[in-house]
User: Which sequence fits this backbone?
């Protein structure tokens, strides 16, 4: 059997593959920066905070580029989604580990995996047809920050739950045996011992969930109303940075297009920071 | 004296425990019901639209009537381009990371880190990149090719991770045996390791497909909106997920077709998910029975 | 470390227990059988433990000693598919009676594991958490904490760092902390599953001294592989053996009987190191 590729060539070929994969992130960053930089000079960094509104135009001088309401919309939607999905996600993981029968736990985990795979556009579509009309009955127009936060929360719930679930698997069995032998009931064990012990892993789950919420585009685009404004109440329609890119990219030219790339760069920085934080949190050993 | 019946001491502990149990079970029930609501909504409204005609005809009247035939073709073509890129590149990288780059290796760690970051990049940013790089810079325009390549960037980290795990699961004894017999690394790889790691690769592939099918934001600006039957991969084509978006947001009265399309998409994903679980299950089963050594 | 061996000096449920060899049954096990799924681990085992005695369970590994221990505080309830037959009575009350509060049972029958397993929390929380669970108030909890840390000889070693992590203690200290944690609940019985096997010889010596101090006031059951340790510690001993893959009791009696004048040949062979 003659080797088709001798080892040094194999090594080089594989290294090339790995190099290309590794360089991808760099390539993305470079292109984002290249497309963004012209906007910094023609629009100016300060304008993104201080312009009267977001009414972009092809020529920087003719348009207005205040991104702050959209950033606010993004952050509020993510925060509210996390407030709901965080505790519930961890609660679901606790349910699977300590309150469900083995059969129920297996079924439930399967359910969570399925939910995690549902496309965001389907969540958005369902939100549009089922949730928004209900909210509209309470307070017009229905498509709002609240709708966005609700759908986002539902979307990131499986992610948070599954990561929290694997964090709980790491809790050593001896700890639970010891606590049980001391006559501790399940909830006291969970609150007093297990949660403090798995703090790091749970936090990672929260960070990953937040990262996903920040980066979400389609679902929030479909249900949050897309008006560029600071959210005054839960029922105000808002537009997030992600939705903005999706809506305007199709016809944006010149400085407008570059401004959109800047918002993309901003998003990438925000999410990458969260991912790095999640990794650091995951690596800390509990003492 | 041993007092074994219920005592007053710790009564509050017992109450908190019961309440906690109730709350957690209620949470689980609530989430299960939510999913049920979503699923029944889709099935109830979408099942009526599904027919052989729906799956094969072209959309008419902006999609309100007719079917999603060209859409499905476009979707599968985009998927095809994506996989054709991801498979060789991903496997090469995974093999490099798994077999040639032990944990301390500088270059290997760099590649791993950048893949971790890549996995976290939001899909809309991929859309921007795909547009700037494939459509504009490389001049491919709105096309299935651009869309597929953009998706390949997204799916790559997931696939590589799964491949690596598949390779890691192959016991070292096999590598030692091959080396002791003086086999070249290439032969070892192609004839022993990769076949043994096949289930892991398959799971990665399937997961990647699932991710790709669900993608919308990355495709809007790379593969475009055209809902005609594509003639080549250089044509623009509309994916199923974009079709759902378009029908629900921009086409009044498009909801019926949108439900149908959503149902088709979810069914495809369920089948894929089921395949992944099945393969993964068989893989674990094999390990336990020692068939893989 | 408190070397005073007079039991009446420190508090405990029995201020002066009866000397061990006036037998007063505390735990009576009759026809016990344990199986995991369809695999039988113990069959038809009957054994009696006397109040205040330290009984060692000896025998080679795999003969069901740990499984036996787990039945006494119903830790077997936690193992899916585990079936327990026969009767276990503590002071005449069958512990499998549906009216029995298992939480109360586990408070009064404490268990120490082979590998020390303090919670990854502060020393203080390790002791106070179970106390709070059983309804002990703050003030009394603090008193009991000092009391048991003194009993186990840890007080002077840790009194200035009660808020540091329990995991920063040495192996021997951690095991003594686990014993203290169990003692804080004022049990009557302590079950110890090879408590010294994960410890170095010096720590082993310290823990053994502690156990010798505790007997008389508490009923202790110690599983051990180490025959020399069993000889050092035991008032009574029970010798387990495997027959057809199932654990059986071969002989039980006073330590004098088991180690010096065993009635069974198998026992004699084992304690003299000729088998097992």
Assistant:
């Amino acid at each position: 059997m003659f080797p088709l590729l001798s080892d040094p060539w194999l090594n080089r070929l594989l290294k090339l593959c790995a190099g290309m994969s590794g360089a991808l992130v760099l390539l993305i960053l470079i292109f984002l920066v290249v497309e963004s930089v012209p906007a910094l000079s023609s629009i100016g960094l300060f304008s993104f905070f201080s312009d009267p509104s977001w009414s972009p135009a092809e020529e920087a001088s003719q348009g207005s580029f205040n991104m702050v309401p959209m950033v606010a919309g993004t952050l509020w939607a993510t925060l509210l989604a996390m407030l709901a999905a965080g505790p519930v996600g961890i609660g679901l993981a606790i349910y699977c580990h300590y309150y469900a029968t083995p059969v129920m736990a297996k079924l439930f985990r399967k359910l969570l995996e399925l939910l995690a795979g549902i496309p965001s556009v389907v969540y958005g579509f369902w939100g549009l047809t089922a949730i928004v009309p209900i909210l509209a009955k309470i307070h017009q127009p229905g498509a709002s920050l609240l709708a966005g936060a609700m759908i986002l929360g539902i979307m990131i719930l499986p992610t948070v739950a599954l990561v929290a679930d694997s964090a709980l698997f790491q809790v050593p069995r001896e700890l639970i045996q010891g606590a049980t032998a001391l006559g501790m009931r399940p909830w006291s064990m969970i609150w007093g011992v297990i949660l403090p012990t798995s703090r790091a892993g749970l936090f990672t789950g929260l960070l990953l969930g937040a990262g996903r919420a920040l980066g979400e585009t389609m679902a929030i685009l479909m249900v949050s109303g897309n008006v560029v404004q600071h959210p005054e109440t839960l029922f105000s329609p808002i537009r997030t940075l992600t939705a903005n890119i999706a809506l305007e990219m199709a016809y944006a030219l010149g400085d407008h297009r570059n401004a959109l790339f800047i918002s993309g760069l901003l998003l990438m920085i925000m999410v990458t920071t969260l991912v790095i934080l999640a990794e650091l949190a995951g690596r800390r050993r509990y003492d | 004296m041993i007092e074994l019946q219920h005592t007053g001491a710790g009564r509050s502990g017992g109450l908190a425990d019961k309440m906690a149990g109730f709350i957690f079970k209620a949470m689980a029930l609530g989430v299960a019901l939510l999913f049920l609501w979503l699923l029944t909504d889709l099935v109830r409204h979408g099942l009526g639209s599904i027919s052989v005609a729906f799956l094969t005809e072209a959309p008419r009247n902006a999609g309100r009537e007719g079917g999603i035939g060209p859409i499905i073709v476009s979707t599968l073509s985009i998927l095809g381009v994506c996989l054709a890129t991801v498979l060789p590149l991903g496997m090469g990288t995974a093999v490099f990371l798994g077999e040639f780059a032990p944990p301390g290796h500088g270059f290997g760690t760099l590649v791993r880190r950048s893949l971790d970051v890549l996995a976290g990049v939001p899909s809309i940013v991929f859309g921007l990149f795909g547009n700037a790089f494939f459509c504009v810079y490389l001049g491919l325009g709105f096309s299935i090719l651009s869309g597929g390549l953009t998706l390949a960037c997204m799916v790559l980290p997931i696939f590589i991770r799964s491949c690596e795990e598949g390779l890691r699961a192959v016991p070292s004894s096999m590598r030692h045996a091959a080396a002791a017999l003086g086999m070249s690394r290439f032969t070892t790889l192609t004839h022993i390791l990769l076949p043994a790691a096949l289930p892991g690769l398959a799971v990665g592939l399937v997961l990647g497909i699932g991710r790709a099918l669900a993608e919308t934001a990355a495709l809007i600006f790379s593969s475009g909106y055209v809902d005609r039957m594509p003639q080549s991969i250089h044509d623009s084509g509309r994916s199923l997920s974009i079709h759902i978006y378009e029908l629900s947001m921009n086409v009044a009265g498009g909801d019926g077709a949108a439900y149908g399309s959503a149902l088709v998409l979810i069914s495809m994903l369920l089948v894929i998910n089921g395949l992944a679980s099945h393969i993964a299950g068989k893989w674990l089963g094999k390990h336990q029975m020692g068939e893989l050594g | 470390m408190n070397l005073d061996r007079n039991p009446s000096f420190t508090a405990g449920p029995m201020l002066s227990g009866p000397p061990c060899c006036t037998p007063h049954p505390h735990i009576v096990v009759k026809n016990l059988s344990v199986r995991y799924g369809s695999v039988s681990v113990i069959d038809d085992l009957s054994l009696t433990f006397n109040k205040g005695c330290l009984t060692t369970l000896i025998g080679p590994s795999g003969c069901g000693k740990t499984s036996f221990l787990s039945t006494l505080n119903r830790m077997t309830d936690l193992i899916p598919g585990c079936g327990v037959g026969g009767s276990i009575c503590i002071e005449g009350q069958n512990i499998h009676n549906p009216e029995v509060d298992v939480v109360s049972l586990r408070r009064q029958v404490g268990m120490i594991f082979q590998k020390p397993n303090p919670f990854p929390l502060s020393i203080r929380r390790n002791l106070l958490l179970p106390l709070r669970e059983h309804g002990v108030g703050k003030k009394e909890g603090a008193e009991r904490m000092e009391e048991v840390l003194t009993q186990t000889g840890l007080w002077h070693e840790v009194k200035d760092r009660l808020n540091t992590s329990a995991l920063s203690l040495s192996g021997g200290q951690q095991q003594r902390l686990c014993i203290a944690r169990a003692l804080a609940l004022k049990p009557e019985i302590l079950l110890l599953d090879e408590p010294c096997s994960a410890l170095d010889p010096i720590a082993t010596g310290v823990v053994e001294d502690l156990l010798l101090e505790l007997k008389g006031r508490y009923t202790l059951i110690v599983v051990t592989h180490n025959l020399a340790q069993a000889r050092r510690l035991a008032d009574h001993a029970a010798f387990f053996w495997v027959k057809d893959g199932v654990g059986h009791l071969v002989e039980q009696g006073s330590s004098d009987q088991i180690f010096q004048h065993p009635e069974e040949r198998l026992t004699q062979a084992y304690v003299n190191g000729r088998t097992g």
